[in-house]
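Proteins fold reproducibly. Consider a sample protein:
=====
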Amino acid sequence: MADPTVGRLPSLAIARLALRNLARNRRRTAITASTVAFSIVLLQFLVALLRGIEQQSFDNLIGYQTGHAKVFAAGYFAEREELPLDRTLGDLSALAERVRAVDGVAAAAPELSFQARLSDGREQIPALGVGLELGGGGSGVFRLDRAVTSGRYLEPGDEAVLLGNGLADLFGLGPGDWITVLVVTSAGAYEALDLPVVGLVGTGNPAIDRGSVLVPLTLAQRMLGLDGQATEVAVRFDGRREAVVLERLATALGEGGFEVRGWREQQANLMALVESKRAGSGVMVSIFVLLAMVGVTNTILMAAYERTREIGMLMAMGLRASGVRRLFLAEGAMIGLFGAVVGTVLALLVVGALSGGIDFQALYGDVDLGYPVRERVYPAVAPAALIAGILTTVVLSALAAVYPAVRAGRERPVEALRHV
């Protein structure tokens, strides 16, 4: 019976032979590996940039606008775009305590969202009004006090407003100026109050910076005729598994006319944008990767043609066709490995050089990226993405060498030895 190991080279021998063959034409190998490396630099930088933008966006939303979740009265969420005042929450202290009692909840605070119009006596601009609980639970849920760019934050007892800096720019207002806030009360009456601006906030979130006026919760309740009521209770988790805490919260408030919505559900449009941006970037990078793989195929194909006589000699000495195929697949994989490692190192150097952030406002002016981020964006490296990029490149490079490897394995020893 024939020995199945006859004519087969060990994997280590295949690797050594592949390295030797790649070293025989260093220039071609270097050019191909450089193409792969360039693709990896682009891939990893875009991944780091998108990851950084997404992380900043999510932190921005949670810290300034949505919390990790919000509790609404039944039916409010479906009508939230109209900001209805007939679906409010009452007994706020008891509800907030009930929310805080859920394991994993760090803080909870009521809010009152309403439609408002701002006027400086010459023109009116619509805005989102938000009544905030000051101190206590409110300071534990949001970080708006850290986003004040001019003046000061609201304090308990204030009869004043905090404006987004973009909205303030439209009126040319600053701390110490006055603005008229017009609202429609829960009873359908019109109410107008002249209030001082105590400060401006810049969060990087257009919904706040360009379209929101923030007031103390008690003032908003009085303006709207909703004493002791709110439209939602914002909730911050303590950092543990978000999905688990959200489920606990929904279970705890499952009865009693409440509905709980996580921040992702509140920002469904943004999450759809994130997915589309990922897909668009993936398509662009895939084109570069495809070009790099074409280079690998071309390099291995040329090597197979140049070494036709060598292949014939090896096969005449007993090397099987499968061994020839393994040899060329190993060469393709090694080119991919070299390029991926070099490209990953270069990508890390680029990201490190940009650790201070990329100032998109300086590059493109007042551009809207579509994400709720500040003008400076910080790329964020994901170790899993780096490893996945290297492994994927090695596999794709090996696959790119399949055709040349199969072609080389089909050579007939006698005909290959006659090749000139």
The first helix runs from residue 11 to 24. The chain is about 50% helix and 20% strand. Residues 53 and 377 are 6 Å apart (CA to CA). The chain has a mean pLDDT of 83.
